[in-house]
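Anyone else keep sequences and structure tokens together like this?

Example one:
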Amino acid sequence: MKGGKPINTRELRVLLKLLEERSVTRTAEALDLTQPFVSLVLKRLREATGDPILVRSGSKLVLTVRGEEMIDPLRAALEGIDRVVGQPADFDPKKAEGEFRIASADCMEAIILPSLVARLREVAPGVRVIVRAIDQAYDYAGALERDELDVVISNWPGPPQHLKTARLLSEDVVCLFGPDHPFAGREEITLDDYLAADHLAPVARSKADPGPIDSHLAAAGLKRDIRVMLPEFNLIPHMLMNGQLVFTSSANFARYQCSILPLSSLPAPAECGSLDFYLLWHERAQADARNTWLRQQIMAVARSLK
């Protein structure tokens, strides 16, 4: 505005209401303002635009051509300001569309994902759920940063520090084996028997991160004999059926596999530690209503498994 104070956002909101109501009195009532203040704003806007905006036609006020042209761009501009500086809209799962993108450690697929997907389908029926596994080559931290993922469910500690972390649950560790394994029929597995056994394990994420079981054993100065490593986690239970291999995993995973295959499990030696599962997300999504809601659903499902 030449030679005067610039028009502020509050005055633009008054202008929009004036254009919509075509009345100083109704505008003042709608915005809980005094009529003199609304009249003053109208005067300033007339001076700023060089147009009367509202003119009298008989007993009522009507918009000038310029006033009519102002409505849509002014409404769009104020909506844009509200999106930038206003409070984000609440997430309504019943009306939501799009995708929930989740990356998961393989061992979680049978533990948490069935219950989670069922919950999401019920409360957010319009949203597709896309789950991908995490392999050695997958940069999950970069995918979170690039908004290619919403969350990651993992069973390894020490994620990159720029990621947000919440503990989901802690699982007992058990040994899973087939009906012909020497452990079948026993009541316990000693540490010596465990270390002497032939083990099956998923392929390690990296040489620096052999996985939680081997990390616990290494901390105790121990090492198991891994004879077979598989890249596909879901193949592991079938590999146990006819062999002399043992697989060390979480109690919930073993319980599920024993319910569908003739497998057995026993508690692993204490030196194997426990399996802790985490929820990871990026700082950029910390305050996002959609991401916050999804994290709440995952944590609720995890609590139900404890």
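And example two:
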Amino acid sequence: MGLLDTMFGHQEAVLSIDCLNKERIVLNGSHDCGSIDCVAMLNENHFVSGSADGSSCVWSIFKKKPRTVKQFAHDRNNKQEPFWVVSVAANPFTDLGASGSNNGELRFWRVADD
């Protein structure tokens, strides 16, 4: 293994990275760019994220804000606090994603234009 490059800029820990075929796309999750704890690519132009605020988002690489936000993606506990989305995954080049939560649940999601 040989080091190719080191990228700087985040002020907090980089928690998650993912990429697909095109070298230009590399994503990361970090607390200094909002509450993004995990990311996964859906295709070359879209990715999903999960966060400690309980939300899961669908993003476009062409926008700085999410296209869709699913608040309380894993519901809330009996204190009405959201369960964290601690992991996300995607089956690349399909509409299928998954998220895991600190409540021990795994949920599967279909991502569509509607």
